[in-house]
Write a structure and sequence with these properties.
Layout lengths: L4 E6 L7 H16 L2 E5 L3 H6 L2 E4 L38 H10 L4 E6 L1 H12 L4 E5 L15 H22 L1 E7 L6 H10 L3 E3 L7 H13 L5 E6 L11 E3 L7 E3 L2 H12 L3 E6 L11 H19 L5 E6 L9 E6 H4 L11 H8 L11
Parallel strand pairs: 1-2, 1-4, 4-5, 6-8, 6-11, 7-8
Antiparallel strand pairs: 2-3, 9-10, 12-13
This protein binds 6-O-phosphono-beta-D-fructofuranose (F6P).
6-O-phosphono-beta-D-fructofuranose binds next to loops.
Length: about 375
């Protein structure tokens, strides 16, 4: 296939590293292959409403260090269930998107997206759109890749927050709960919890017992430590219970998580003679400049995506893997869009970080055997 013009869209929630990814795509496409790059605005919405512009080398100058996405994004716009202002109900507008791709003579479309946006990309691929995916999401829950763009920055921000909570929690002898993002996956809470030295880490993959948390806090008090830091993933749930979430819109972005921190605060305050406070770190985890690792991953993935197109590899997603002897080097690979559409990548119960956490006495809220 001879390529002359490609499209690029950032879809789903923003993540630090999207701009470096766009920069790498544009630079590689223009400098290595002489292709034209069209950028669509506000995620899939731009592909439905025809909002696009040509991206030049000038457009991506200075973007390596900038958070957000210069194209804009949306985590509500789904071409298979979209509502224009005149629509009473969401409708399937995917044919309209296919027509625009054809009308613009796009030879390929790169979707930089998370688990939900790449699942949509898979359905578009099945309809014949020549698509390739680049994984981004602070949640780090895309199948087949150990890192998604944005995750490293979110973990760094959350770790810094836990560091700061430590000093105030210790001074006031308080239990401080920090609620972290991640939807159904506990990657951010687990990594930031370990890196920040949280005493209790609660993730969706391991339903928690309130008794176990109370026991962990009381054991610390008995040992003379009158404060406790709890890192809780927004999707965490008690044994036999469910996550705190509300339904807000059409699939796949339907559920909005949040509130587990406040719920735990109320429940723990009833059981403990300590003051319990909670905060949700929220969108601070997604804002600001990308850390170095996200810049490296975004650059590697963005340029590899273009090389993959040149090799005719479509219907796939770029991935990164660990590199045994050189942790600073990034080895890229691929997985199919079909694999990614299987659903989010959760923390496996035998993950080494869980073993490390348990080894150093961090409570994961697991039920204590009688
Ligand atoms: O998927 C990324 C993410 O930040 C999740 O961790 C979080 O649940 C969600 O997006 C928040 O979405 P919104 O920006 O719509 O509140």
């Amino acid at each position: 296939m001879s390529i002359r013009r490609i499209g690029c869209v950032t879809a789903g929630g923003d993540a630090p590293g999207l701009n470096p990814a766009i920069r790498a795509i544009v630079k590689t496409a223009i400098l290595q292959y002489g292709w034209q790059v069209i950028g669509f605005e506000d995620g899939y919405e731009g592909l439905l409403t025809g909002r696009w512009r040509t991206l030049t080398l000038d457009d991506v100058r200075g973007q390596l260090v900038r958070g957000g996405t210069l194209l804009g994004t949306s985590n509500r716009a789904n071409p298979f269930a979209f509502a224009f202002p005149t629509d009473e109900q969401p409708r399937d507008y995917s044919d309209r998107l296919v027509s625009l791709v054809e009308a613009l003579s796009l030879d390929a479309l790169i979707v930089v997206g998370g688990d939900g946006s790449l699942s949509i990309a898979y359905r578009l691929w099945q309809k014949g759109v020549p698509i390739l995916g680049v994984p981004k999401t602070i949640d780090n829950d895309v199948q087949g890749t150990i890192f998604s763009i944005g995750y490293a920055t979110a973990v760094a921000v959350a770790t810094d927050a836990i560091d700061r909570l430590h000093t105030t929690a210790e001074s006031h002898h308080r239990v401080m709960i920090v609620e972290l993002m991640g939807r159904t996956a506990g990657w951010i809470a687990l990594a930031a919890g370990v890196a920040g030295g949280a005493d209790v880490i609660l993730i969706p993959e391991i339903p928690f017992s309130l008794d176990a948390i109370v026991t962990a806090i009381e054991q610390r008090r008995a040992a003379g430590r009158h404060f406790t830091i709890i890192a809780v993933a927004e999707g965490a749930q008690p044994v036999g219970g469910s996550a705190v979430a509300e339904i807000t819109g059409p699939l796949p972005y339907q559920r909005r998580y949040g509130g587990i921190g406040l719920l735990l605060q109320a429940q723990l305050a009833q059981r403990l003679p300590l003051e319990v406070r909670s905060l949700a770190l929220g969108h601070l985890q997604r804002g600001g400049p990308p850390v170095a690792l996200d810049r490296l991953i975004a650059t590697a993935m963005g340029s590899e995506a273009v090389h993959m197109l040149a090799r005719g590899q479509l219907g796939q997603v770029v991935t990164v893997h660990g590199n045994g002897d050189n942790p600073a080097a990034i080895r890229v690979g691929t997985v199919t869009l079909a694999d990614v559409a299987r659903g989010p990548r959760l923390v496996p119960l035998d993950h080494p970080l869980l073993t490390s956490a348990r080894s150093i006495g961090i409570s994961l809220g697991e039920e204590v055997p009688a």
